[in-house]
Amino acid sequence: MRGLSTKSDFSLFLGCLIPNRLPEIEKSTRLVCERLGINLHDMKGASCCPAPGVMKSFDKALWLKIAGRNLDIAANMGMDIITLCNGCYGTLKDASMELKDDPELQEVVRASLSTIDRDLGKIVDVYHFVEYLYFDYGLDDLSDHITKKLDYKVAAHYGCHLLKPIKYRRTKDFDAPTFFDELIELTGSTSVDYVEKNTCCGAGGGLRSGLKDVALDIARKKVASIKDANMIVTPCPFCHMQLAQVSNIPVVYYSQLLALSMGFSEEEVGMAVGK
């Protein structure tokens, strides 16, 4: 049974990393969404989200204005946003919610956008791809499209911005979330437990830029705690890139795994996984 949302058209916010470094994430997501009847529309002129860690800490007003411009692009398209990146989700979702909650902030952002002939208009909603699949599209409807049961042992990595801040997230159980594991196991794979499952990948908050060795040490500790898996599955290209640098097992994005279970080939989704 389909979840509460019946939306099928979305503004697709790709962010920076996917089009520049990880095109396989975009391709596999487009294949999956076409099969599911989810229509993705390109956001022409979209900028960086901007990243939630550094800019928000130094200049929240500027962070909101840039995010507001991206929200306005989607509003002019008449569609809510779906994004494939935890960081982009963290910025656009939080900015959307903060602007809805605070009329004074709205006026500040509207005044700034007016200087470039833009206006917030209706403040759109923002969904993460995996959040939408689980909470809105629904596992039952999603399972109808599974044609091949996989048998991978998967280490799920949720990442930070998919779960926090809890006041703006669909799941409130950030200590022991299960929805991403359930999406993984829908493909026939097994989501294995590991000690560092709920820790950060080490890349966020500017740590990777400022202290790369420390950031990679955090990632190494996480990966070293994975004992019984033949791949890591992420919902975030930034986490994906970080973990792939230190992992001795493949790191794949969820839409790639899902596409395989829908009958697409490894070549079509940009992956070659050794069991």
Q: Can you describe this structure in just a few lines?
A:
This protein is α/β, with parallel strands linked by helices and 275 residues long. It is built from 14 helices and eight strands.
Walk me through the topology.
Blueprint: E1 9-13, H1 17-21, H2 23-36, E2 39-42, H3 54-58, H4 60-77, E3 81-83, H5 86-101, H6 103-114, E4 126-128, H7 129-137, H8 139-143, E5 153-156, H9 179-185, E6 190-192, H10 207-210, H11 212-224, E7 231-234, H12 237-244, E8 251-253, H13 254-261, H14 266-269
Parallel strand pairs: 1-2, 1-3, 3-4, 5-6, 5-7, 7-8
Helix pairs in contact: 2-13, 4-5, 4-6, 5-6, 7-9
Keywords:
275 residues, alpha/beta, Glutathione S-transferase Yfyf (Class Pi), Chain A, domain 2, 2 domains, four-stranded parallel β-sheet, globular
Kindly describe this structure.
By secondary structure, the protein is an alpha/beta fold. The chain folds into two domains: 121 residues, Glutathione S-transferase Yfyf (Class Pi), Chain A, domain 2 (Up-down Bundle), CATH 1.20.1050.140; 131 residues, Rossmann fold (3-Layer(aba) Sandwich). Helices cover 47% and strands 11% of the residues. The chain is built from 14 helices and eight strands. The strands form two sheets. The protein has a four-stranded parallel beta sheet with strand order 2-1-3-4, with helices on both faces. Strands 6-5-7-8 form a four-stranded parallel beta sheet, sandwiched between helices. Helix 2 packs across helix 13. The protein is globular.
